[in-house]
Amino acid sequence: MNKVWTISKRELRSFFDSLIAYILIIVFLGLSGFFTWLYGSDVFFVGQATLQPFFSIAYWTLFFFIPALTMRMISDEKKTGTIELLFTKPITDWQLVLGKFLASLELIAIALLFSLPYYISVWMIGPIDHGAVWCGYFGMILMSMALIGIGLFASSITSNQIVAFLLSLFIGVFFLIIFDVLANSFTGVTGQFFSYLSLSNHYGSISRGVIDSRDLIYFLSIAFFGLFLAQSVLSKRNIVE
């Protein structure tokens, strides 16, 4: 486990050294703050002390930011050849993938941590449902885990960052939009099946303050499956692409 933490610290440090972390945090806070306080269905338009406007925009912001964050994590290593140097060290494929996964999750957690002033400000405006707020943050973390898993898998199968970004978005669209549309288009067992695959349904349930084991299993399964596929691709790195 020490090797995993070492890799995650290395990756997290690279985010800040390359300004990726600063750009992500600033743009994330700027967009979420704008839509939370100033535009459309903001806090003042809703007329109650709630952080739902923030979670609604953060949901879509992370959908685009996480693929941009993960697109280079393995593809760039493959393109520059540094991934072979990494594997000359006593680390396994799983340790490398988990280290990169933790680094991405830590950066997302830092970005969400910097949004706590929004929570405090809304709390000062009026009575707020603290349970719903913390469930919203918890849902953000779970959704981020799933999207990071997808992003790392996309990054592992190509040495082109743009291709990795687009592939991650393409897969994400199925979970965030298409499965939801299909769930509303079918009834019975088929509709229930697509409804279970819809990420928005599971996230919506948690953000309302309802934590169900099925939702936890769903997010953790996507994250694990994405990491498993990424590890499987790396294990075949000696095969000429």
Write up this protein.
The chain is mainly α and 241 residues long. The protein has one domain (2-235). It has 13 helices and no strands. Helix 4 (52-70) crosses helix 10 and helix 9 packs antiparallel against helix 12. The longest helix is centred in the middle third of the chain and has 27 residues, at 130-156. The two termini are 31 Å apart. The model has no long low-confidence stretch (mean pLDDT 85).
Total beta-strand segments: 0
The gyration radius over C-alpha positions equals: 19 Å
Main sheet summary: none
Question: What percentage of amino acids are in beta strands?
Answer: under 5%
Number of helices: 13
Helix fraction bin: over 70%
